[in-house]
């Protein structure tokens, strides 16, 4: 089971996530922001309120995305340098 241990907001739709195995992946939330309760996260100020709790990414308003979903939809991060 994947667990999110750290996040960095990269821009208005992308997060750099660190998982419990130390792996970093970039999650693009764009497709999720078109659906139901997640539409409010299209507001950049709200999206940037992301935080880690309960081993996953959460936002105010009791929004979260399951860690396995985040991992599955994220791309491996390749640092420069």
From TrEMBL:
Classification via Gene3D superfamilies: NE0471-like N-terminal domain (3.30.2020.10)
* InterPro entries xrefs: DUF2442 (IPR018841), NE0471-like_N (IPR036782)
Organism superkingdom = Bacteria
Mind telling me which Pfam families this protein's record contains?
DUF2442
Q: What is this protein called?
A: DUF2442 domain-containing protein
